[in-house]
Amino acid sequence: MQIYPEERVALFIDGSNLYATARALEMEIDYKALRSYFAQEGRLIRAYYYTAILEDQEYSPLRPLVDWLDYNGFTMVTKPVKEFTDGHGHRKIKGNMDIEIAVDMLNLAKSLDHIILFSGDGDFRRLIEAVQRCGTRVTVVSSNSTQPSMIADELRRQADQFVDLKHLMEAFGKPAAASANDEPGDSAYEEQLGG
C-alpha cells in the first residue's frame, strides 16, 4: 500500500462489510494492529468505525467490540438496527451506515491527503469521485480473492488504489480460528445478526 509519511490519513471502516470480507478470507482483524499499521505509515488523523447495533436486546455480542474500539482510539459511529417483516412474514434487520460514512468523509475530505475506505460496496463509487475532486487520494480495501468477489468493480476502478485485504493479513490479520481468547473481534457480528 502506498501511503506517504507526511500524508494526513483517515480510516473509514464499514464494520459489517469488513466483517463479511474477513470472514470470506477466513481471517479475523486485529484492530489494535490495524490502527498501529496506519499510524506508522502516515499521519493518522482519525479512525472511524461504523456499525448498527440491536438496541432492544439486554446484551449485544457486538457491544464488547464497540466498547473496546471506542477506548482504543477509534471514533465509533453507531445507530440502532431497524427490524421489519418482509412480504413473506420473515423477520429482517437493516443497519446500513452508508449515509453516515458519506457525510463524515465529505466533511473531512479537504482536511486530509488520503482516505482509506474499508468496504467493497459499489454505492460508494460516487462518494469516492466527490472526495477525489477535493484533491484527496482514496484507497479502497476489500477483496477480489474471494468467490464471489467482495469488491464492486466500479468501486475498484474509481479508487486511486485498491488493496486486497488478503495482502494485509500479515500486518493486522490472523486466522479466524486462532482468535477465540483474544481481544474482541468481528465474530460478534455473526452472533448479533443471527449468522
Question: How would you characterize the overall build of this protein?
Answer:
The chain is an alpha/beta fold and about 200 residues long. The protein has a single domain, classed as Rossmann fold, CATH 3.40.50.1010. It contains eight helices and ten strands. It has helices at about 15-25, 30-40, 65-70, 100-110, 125-135, 155-160, 170, 185-190, and strands at about 10-15, 25-30, 45-55, 75-80, 80-85, 90-95, 115-120, 135-140, 160-165, 175. The strands form three sheets. Strands 4-3-1-7-8-9 form a six-stranded parallel beta sheet, sandwiched between helices. Strands 2-10 form a two-stranded antiparallel sheet. Strand 3, helix 3 (about 65-70) and strand 4 (about 75-80) form a beta-alpha-beta unit. The longest helix has 11 residues, at about 30-40. The radius of gyration is 16 Å and the shape is globular. The model is unreliable at about 180-195 (pLDDT under 50).
